[in-house]
Specification:
Blueprint lengths: L1 E3 L9 E7 L7 H10 L3 E6 L1 H4 L8 E5 L2 E6 L3 E8 L2 E9 L5 H14 L4 E10 L9 E5 L22 H11 L4 E9 L7 H15 L6 H19 L2 H12 L9 H16 L15
Parallel strand pairs: 2-7, 2-8, 8-10
Antiparallel strand pairs: 1-3, 3-6, 4-5, 6-7, 9-10
Length: 288
């Protein structure tokens, strides 16, 4: 199912996992993984024939001047990088359609083979939270004693459709390797990428591993996106009212559908693309 193509010398390596698809709202989980491991070199790859139904995740075919030149297959790969002085492996790609049990067992084998000391799962879920406030981060752990700093654990029973990264988490924990998961809540009216969510996850990983990860670019991108979202919301009275309700609501207060707000913002941006723009309108695509 997989091939290890490089064998770096690792010292107490940590593996970070994030897969596109489920629990990757606004592409926050995979964007965070890319930010952390962007300079890493590939050391392992999975056979796409074992993981994907190509009718649902079709390969991309390049046709140049009528000639079929290249096919790009959906992938899951592992990269190696040194981040803040720590050896870090980053497993990322598309969420598999097939073979989750075999896939999870294979990831656990890789972790054991390479001496991984901890697995960190990254993800994002849509929630009734406003973009005007810091995004909350929910935490899971195979052993809460390994958690560092302030954490927010889900209370009681939380029954949700499973994601492949969560099955991987369970398999790795069963192999005796501690696991934690960080899942940021993102406004369900932002399609992505949502930089504030990425910034929150990067900070959480850095705090947990007690390392420094450069944040300057993320902070400036987050500030710019916040300005754009503020402008879009301010131009729509219904949207502004909804965001204000999110800021003050309690659990027993009904709120309008996030889909309704998303439709309003999408309509606004669609009108902008058609040329119905005022001089003070925000840039196109500002809702993500």
């Amino acid at each position: 199912m997989y091939t290890i193509t490089d064998h770096p010398e690792l010292d107490a390596a940590v593996m970070i996992t994030a897969l596109a698809g489920w629990v990757d709202a606004a592409t926050v989980g995979t964007t965070t993984a890319a930010h952390i491991g962007m300079d890493g070199r590939q050391i392992a790859e999975f056979d796409p024939d074992e993981l994907f139904d190509y009718r649902s995740q079709r390969p991309i075919l390049d046709i140049v001047d009528g000639s079929m030149k290249q096919t790009v297959w959906p992938e899951v790969v592992v990269r190696y990088a040194v981040v803040g002085g720590r050896d870090v492996l980053v497993l990322t790609g598309q969420e598999p359609d097939l073979g989750w049990k075999k896939f999870s067992k294979s990831v656990a084998e890789i972790c054991t083979h390479l001496g991984v000391t901890q697995l960190i799962t990254l993800g994002a879920v849509p929630a009734a939270v406003p973009h005007t406030m810091p995004p909350p981060v929910l935490t899971t752990a195979s052993d809460i004693d390994i958690l560092k700093g302030e954490v927010r654990l889900p209370e009681g029973l939380l029954r949700v459709p499973a994601a492949a990264v969560s099955i991987v988490d369970q398999a790795v924990a069963a192999a005796g390797i501690p696991t934690v998961g960080f899942f940021v809540q993102v406004p369900h009216y932002v399609s992505g990428p949502y930089t504030a969510g990425v910034l929150a996850l990067v900070r959480r990983v850095a705090d947990h591993l007690e390392i420094e990860i450069p944040l300057d670019d993320l902070e400036s991108e987050t500030a710019a996106q916040r300005e754009q979202l503020d402008a879009v919301v301010a131009s729509q009275p219904e949207a502004q009212e909804y965001v204000e309700r999110l800021e003050t609501m309690t659990s027993d207060q009904p709120v309008v559908s996030g889909e309704e707000l998303a439709n309003e913002i999408e309509r606004y941006l669609r009108d902008a693309r058609r040329g119905e723009r005022r001089p003070d309108d925000p840039p196109e695509g500002s809702a993500g």
